[in-house]
């Protein structure tokens, strides 16, 4: 679009926004109006955030519950499982979940603009792109042992990790369907089915893991069998819901349009993937750096317990991240800059309040939660020593991922990817290495440096969000929607 045309649209949108504000001001008193708006916004927020948190709790909970069972099998098994779940699974999650999050932008804005038929086409395109991407990731799971030995991990841990990683291959392929369907359903606020499946997954995993390890005595094999079964349940359940009438407006069946213009969708998916990958891999590097320290097994066990607690709490923040993305995308697609800004303030404040409560809770508990994962007193003492850093990380989690969700909803994934690179990899990791290895703070030093990287990133994202012209974002959202819509219409006419 030419500069003049964009400016003209901006003027029209701003006039419309001012008119909307004037109309709202005429309705009752300020307090009554604010209360009503908060009530309505929170209903919309929790309709997405509640099921999203439940689902992410379930997905991460499968990993944590598995680790709890594996931790009582042996120290080597626990360290190896920690490496695979924190490094490989987070690596594949970062790519696949990141690329799937492009649907939050595309589906959310299209749904807000009432172009419902496009959601099913976007979903099918994401399946194709993520499946191809999974084939490229597959060799890492197959050759885990030699790769870990190559980067200097202990032989016993590397061998055990190689065995565990092969069991995770079917799990990785389940993410293709589970992640994309979750984004697709979230954008329409149709995610109660996701909640039901999440609860079923957790209950079944605890039961199956107990049965296979305690009754059948299968040990590690029993835990992994349970993981595979329960990770495919949400995928099949959501597919069944979509295929058999759960989304009549947006799912019109399979279409050859899914194979068209894949390059353009891939670009959007890649920018989303890079943004989230850089975020999820950050903690992965913390684990890898810890693996080079003296007494690596105890350090890895303690750190993995802390990161699992941190990661489980982060599922709340990721739930709000998804909700922020949906709310912002829906309101921008609907053409309301004012409601988009109000949604952002509401979700950030809500998440921060929860973060402060959890910060206090984990600071009081300190190392007591470690007994869920291990009976080793040396490991529990190490966890207690790391607890203040864990609590502070939890507090940061309540703001930073939510701001990333705002970026996803607005379609800024590329910008946030650059912010992540600068803050994480040019500030956080170098500081962590200096504090951990040079200053001699060991694991605490590495974690402190990386926390400082997150602090800088949070400040930058807050600045970007507060300085954004949201009326302009409405216009850009409409241009994006119209571009995809017109492209699809012209292709349908040609065919």
Automatic annotation (TrEMBL):
Name-wise, this protein is: Protein DETOXIFICATION
Q: What is its main location?
A: membrane
Composition-biased stretches (Basic and acidic residues)? 10-20
Whether Magnesium counts among this entry's keywords is: no
- Could you tell me the keywords of this UniProt record? Membrane, Transmembrane, Transmembrane helix
Q: GO CC terms for this protein?
A: membrane
Q: Where is this region: Disordered?
A: 1-33
> What Pfam families has UniProt attached to this entry?
MatE (PF01554)
Could you say which protein family the record assigns here?
A: Belongs to the multi antimicrobial extrusion (MATE) (TC 2.A.66.1) family.
- PANTHER family under this entry? MULTIDRUG RESISTANCE PROTEIN
Which NCBIfam families has this protein been placed in? matE
The record, for CDD domains, names: MATE_eukaryotic (cd13132)
The record's annotation in InterPro entries points to: MATE_euk, MATE_fam
Segments crossing the lipid bilayer = 127-147, 167-185, 192-212, 218-247, 268-292, 312-330, 342-366, 386-408, 415-439, 445-464
Membrane-protein topology: Multi-pass membrane protein
The taxonomy runs: Eukaryota, Viridiplantae, Streptophyta, Embryophyta, Tracheophyta
Where in or outside the cell it occurs: the entry states: Membrane
For this UniProt entry, the molecular function terms from Gene Ontology, in alphabetical order, are: antiporter activity; xenobiotic transmembrane transporter activity
Q: What Gene Ontology terms for biological process does this UniProt record contain?
A: xenobiotic detoxification by transmembrane export across the plasma membrane
> Which superkingdom?
Eukaryota
